[in-house]
């Protein structure tokens, strides 16, 4: 890690800790982190979904088609559950941050 990267990391932490001192700042940090988590999870889910749908194009046998369908269903269920959990955790943290 370069010294400039460490300095930037310390600066970012200082800004976040300064924001966390106030209620509005706490809510802002929670919403930002929750939004970032949902965005990253959503993009990852879409990329995984593209991969599983691409497996349909490569499938030769009936078993391969069923496997691709099952993989698509698993990706949809797991991604939906993960995004839902991230949003509910964010909402819970906002409720706990505001008295």
How are the secondary structure elements laid out?
Blueprint lengths: L2 H17 L3 H36 L3 H36 L2
- Helix amount: over 70%
Estimate the mean pLDDT confidence. Answer: 93
- Number of spatially distinct domains: 1
Number of strands: 0
Please summarize the sheet with the most strands: none
**In one word, what is the shape?**
elongated
**How many whole angstroms does the radius of gyration measure?**
20 Å
Task: Quickly give the structural class.
Answer: mainly alpha
Task: Specify the number of helices.
Answer: 3
| Beta-strand share of residues | under 5%
- Low-pLDDT ranges: none
Describe this structure in words.
By secondary structure, this protein is an all-alpha fold. It has one domain (23-97). The chain contains three helices and no strands. The chain has helices at residues 3-19, 23-58, 62-97. Helix 2 runs antiparallel to helix 3. The longest helix is centred in the middle third of the chain and has 36 residues, at 23-58. It is elongated. The two termini are 40 Å apart.
How would you summarize what this structure contains?
With about 100 residues, the chain is mostly helical. The protein is about 90% helix and about 0% strand.
């Amino acid at each position: 890690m370069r010294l400039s990267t460490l300095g930037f990391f310390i600066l970012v932490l200082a800004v976040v800790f300064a924001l966390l001192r106030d209620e509005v700042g706490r809510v802002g940090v929670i919403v930002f982190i929750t939004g970032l988590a949902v965005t990253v999870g959503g993009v990852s889910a879409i990329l995984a979904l593209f991969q599983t749908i691409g497996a349909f194009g490569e499938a030769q046998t009936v078993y391969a088609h069923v496997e691709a369908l099952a993989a698509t269903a698993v990706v949809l269920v797991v991604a939906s559950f993960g995004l839902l959990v991230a949003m509910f955790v964010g909402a819970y943290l906002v409720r706990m941050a505001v008295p």
